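Page 37, continued from 36.
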């Protein structure tokens, strides 16, 4: 049986002498591992459609182990990203984390569309001499992570206090207890807690509800960006249970 699917290639590695295994994110099936035979032997047309960071349409043959690529059409090669070192590093780092973050059985079209939007946005940005550590590239990356966290079901509880269950009333900083959520201040504990700024909460709620064109218009100060980056990092580390560099 053969299936057609729209995918973004995340990464690949060698298998046997001439074959490769690919981790891909498919619009229809979510994250998958697939194999391609002979791609390393010839300068196969297939090989360019299967390069990491490429958007392609794949024709897959169902196999007992991994599905095998029978045909491929490149939809978008993201060449501008590939030719801009900063953009390339940012996208590779993002894809690396995405690959670890999503489970194989999670079929989320929203994640696929968010990834596509993120790469298209970076590709467009790559023509200018943008500094990729600054906004809006960094905001685009952070907003993408929050969409993935949200659609994977890992979004932290931010509306109610984890101790007294009361609705959180607005103040500048909240105590965020990793793996549990925020406290209104009714109890003090000595576990490690993060000082979460109210603007960070507003931003991540905005990220999951808006597309990248709206995110690109946001202007934020350095303090807000720092709090947002740190909060994103501790949440990625909470989910992956390992250190993350973003
Ligand atoms: Zn409370």
């Amino acid at each position: 049986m053969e299936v057609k699917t729209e995918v973004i290639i995340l990464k690949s590695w060698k298998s046997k002498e001439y074959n490769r295994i690919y981790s891909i994110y498919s619009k229809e099936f979510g994250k998958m591992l697939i194999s391609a035979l002979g791609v390393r032997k010839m300068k196969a047309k297939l090989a360019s459609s299967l390069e990491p960071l490429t958007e392609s349409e794949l024709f897959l043959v169902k196999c007992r182990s991994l599905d095998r690529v029978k045909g491929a059409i490149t939809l978008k090669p993201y060449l501008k990203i590939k030719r801009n070192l900063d953009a390339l590093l940012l996208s590779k780092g993002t894809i690396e984390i995405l690959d670890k973050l999503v489970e194989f059985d999670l079929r989320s079209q929203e994640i696929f569309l968010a990834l596509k939007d993120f790469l298209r946005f970076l590709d467009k940005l790559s023509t200018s001499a943008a500094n990729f550590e600054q906004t809006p590239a960094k905001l685009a990356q952070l907003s993408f992570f929050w969409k993935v966290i949200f659609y994977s079901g890992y979004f932290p509880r931010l509306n109610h206090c984890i101790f007294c269950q009361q609705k959180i009333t607005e103040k500048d900083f909240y105590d965020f207890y990793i793996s549990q959520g925020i406290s209104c201040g009714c109890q003090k504990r000595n576990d490690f807690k993060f000082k979460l700024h109210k603007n960070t909460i507003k931003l991540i709620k905005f990220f999951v509800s808006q597309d990248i064109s709206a995110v690109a218009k946001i202007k934020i100060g350095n303090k807000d960006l720092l709090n947002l980056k740190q909060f994103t990092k501790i949440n990625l580390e909470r989910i992956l249970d390992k250190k993350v560099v973003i």
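The mean pLDDT is 91. Flag for discussion at group meeting. The longest strand covers residues 2-15.
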